[in-house]
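Slide 14.
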Amino acid sequence: MKNLHQRAEILMEALPYIKAYHGKTVVIKYGGGAMTSDALKESIASDIVLMKLVGISPVIVHGGGPEITALMNRLDIPVEFVDGLRKTTSETMDIVKMVLVGKVNKELVSLINRHGRLAIGLSGDDGGLILARKKKHKHDLGFVGEIESINAQVLDDLIADDYIPIIASIGGDNKGASYNINADTVAAEIAGAIKADKIIFLTDVEGLYRDFGQEHTLISALTHDECKEMINTEKLKGGMVPKVQGCVRAIEEGVQRAHILNGTVPHALLLEIFTNEGVGTMIS
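Slide 15: predicted structure.
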């Protein structure tokens, strides 16, 4: 009986958060370390389904860099990064599409749709969702893109029809070319375009640190301005840079809160959204 009472107390703790987020849109950037095992994928998919069934509208943006690299290695295609960006030849772009659109996207859709016809898979090419152009850079990165605009109507219509959009981070231009775009950037731009209430970046660390690697320096909350200062003073390294830039961009576009969570923790999404303590780092 004691365990039953504890379960009831957990549900009651979640109630005010369910009420607060009912009818709200939450963008979730999913990728990297949070995609490393089938068990983790199942955990995140079930969290997303629960969010949907209690009245939250999740929109998922995913990458798949490690899987792209793994396939390129198997096919003996050179892998080259410049300033953290994958140099993308036309041959590499075919691999990116094959992995992101043909494999990762459909796996996520299938995982979620085991619980009902809830999810629809998209890339930026679909419905002109992401209009892109070649990214300006001092080196020629090939088909690496940056976003010109987001067609929010595509997502607004799917959300209104009660679907969960699952979006691969590929965009297209008006001439029919496709571009590989950083998934953190895509998530931030989409969150701003659809006026999401919250954006969550799932990664493989607990959040932002004042001194990376020192657990006691984990930052539970900070402001938009403090984030910009961290970027400007180059306190961030590697893959955390585009995530924090994405948080800043989303906040500037009207998103109320941005979060960086450890997606390798089982049910991290539920812990963040539906508990008093929350997890990770919040930017507001």
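Speaker note: The chain has a mean pLDDT of 89.
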